[in-house]
């Protein structure tokens, strides 16, 4: 073999070696639980959330929700920015990072939260914290959708909803009362065939967030939060206690929720 | 009866697999050198690389006296190089800068390794036996931050420091006479070997999750580190090598080597949080290598005399964490491009390390100074090609 040929081959290999290309990769089995779990964590670390969401059913439910949150902008950078702010209320922090374009990922988020709630999260602070953040995002996105339908000059959804706009949204819902039927508009369905209404998304998100607060507070031993009050709010979704949540109960729950948010921000 | 014993041995070894507290699925090795890595780690059946061959397979029999007085090696990846470069600004104490830097490091593995060998001898005794002994030490460090809300956990940390020595021997049956010509014909192509490695080591292996931090259940403790240091680990290797000549020419210008080595018998274990984990399991490694001396084709006495194409399959019984077939395949092409009476030599090697291309270079000056380097990629993921980590390894030694 001639020297120049050998040197060219050696440099080509050096170049390829430096790129981390794997020649056996096309032949490796890739679609099994252990590999999928590593893959979702890896994709989330790299910020490739869309790839997780495109095949979310293969990945752990926690990663499904984290990817949906990540694609909407809730990542480690945002968490560190939030933690560095000291004069903003927790309620504001939980909803201030959302805006109108995040509605595109509402179904992904709702589906992921549904899958996560079917897991055992009672011993896992990371799962309950994910429920908390995911649930509040889901609830807020539902409210943004509702505000878009309201389409009043009093509410500008481009930058989220502030406290006056929450009040205006609540007023719009009950004047005239027929506006409440908008709560039951279907906004989409996931790959498992679950359909989501605006009211379901708002109420479901709120209860997920409250469950997250409840369990996370218990897990970290936080005694500052009134856990019985939170339990009562969750229970109020089923106002008559017959274990069936009807449209009236959803409407009442959401009206009460909007009023509470407007008061606390 | 032999089959039953063999199956029992395999079953016992299989039970050795214990769940590993790290998100990293890298295949760790107890000894790595730049040139061996540069030829894709396909060295089980290559016998001419001195200590590197002995560490891959104790049966490697090369009847040359050699020694190394000092060997130092460093390996790191490009992330670590970048951090070293940015260290002055990070040490300024600006907390916001440090936090921002840490956030940018999410999903980017940091690793480095430092090796130090103090003595290494290959001593031929008679024509059939080679005695090998040496002292070495190794420091390994791996660190990666993940998105704390994902299922990967928050922080992966592996820190390991090991010091020890080895003593072993390789024996060739080339002069054996059993009285049976046919048996002797094959037996004389065989060599066996054993490497009794002893190590004192300690380390941290931990995947810290957000849950553990919040619930204050992080497992790392100084007690573990100290208790590991008090334990001497004994992790021998054994091997067998069969050299089949393909021609009748003097000096065997072409041959095929077939080899099997059993490495790290008993496994290299460390204790973390009261639990024992196997960092490196016992592995059966199979290798085949084709050797050709190109003198008859090129006509030069100093170029392309020792050339190998080799193929290895490491961990025949899938003892490592992942069960991917292709991560275990190693292919190498090694050539002694130039050798001027052993005073100056240049070896170039290329390979595939579990599918990733590798490149290795070994230079020898004045017969005693040896410099080696390699560019390679390790697989951190579960299957070949999932999560590459490109690394650089260089070493320098003084010896003959």
Please tag this protein with its features:
heterodimer, A: 265 residues, mainly alpha, two-stranded antiparallel ribbon, 12 helices, 61% helix, 3% strand, B: 400 residues, alpha+beta, 14-stranded antiparallel barrel, two-stranded antiparallel sheet, 9 helices, 17 strands, 18% helix, 47% strand, globular, disordered N terminus
In short:
The complex is a heterodimer of chains A (265) and B (400). Chain A is an all-alpha fold and 265 residues long.
Describe the structure in your own words.
The complex is a heterodimer of chains A (265) and B (400). Chain A is mainly α. Helix content of chain A is 61%, strand content 3%. Chain A has helices at residues 3-19, 33-45, 49-54, 61-71, 76-83, 90-96, 106-117, 125-150, 163-174, 198-220, 227-235, 247-264; strands at 186-189, 195-197. In chain A, strand 1 (186-189) and strand 2 form a beta hairpin. The mean pLDDT of chain A is 83. Chain B is 18% helix and 47% strand. Chain B is built from 9 helices and 17 strands. Chains A and B meet through helix 1, helix 2, helix 4, helix 5 and helix 8 of A and helix 5, helix 7, strand 13, strand 14 and strand 15 of B.
